Amino acid sequence: MDAAIVTLAREGMRGLTHRAVDRAAGVAEGSTSYYFRTREALLVGVLDRLADLSTAEISAVDAHDLAAVAGLIEHWATAGRERMLARFELTLEATRRPQLRAALERLSGHFRSMAEEVLAETNVPDAKRRAADLVAHIDGLLFDQVVGAGPARSLEDLQRALTPLFMAAFAV
Description:
78% of the residues lie in helices and 0% in strands. It has nine helices and no strands. It has helices spanning 2-15, 18-25, 31-35, 39-59, 66-77, 81-93, 98-121, 127-147, 155-170. It comes from Kibdelosporangium persicum. Residues 17-36 bind DNA. GO terms for molecular function: DNA binding.
């Protein structure tokens, strides 16, 4: 799946084939299709792998620590850029594929639930809505950084951008 993520990020949705993943992983032709019979299964497999990696990274960060969250976003926009490009490719593709859409909705719900849990622990009112808003804002900030749609932001810039989001999310 890691080879599929790299292939998707570098070649786009059209370049992601079972054969291309086999080549990128350095495995025998047919290996990827043995485990992921259809393109749909391959796409869902990539999305699941991305979810596992992101969940582990999010869990390792103190979600109350603005600097730590900004550092994670910076990591995703730089060292983790290929993973985020693959994620955004899948997000757009999900608008046309119901099975992928369902997998994406599970993933998005998982991340919103993680944020909601953090907010609920600090007795924030309306934690569910605020968590959804916070995740959406962070996703937008991340998208802006990964695709280069806005100005490149340093770690300090990211912290400044996150400050009002955190103040709104954690306000009691």
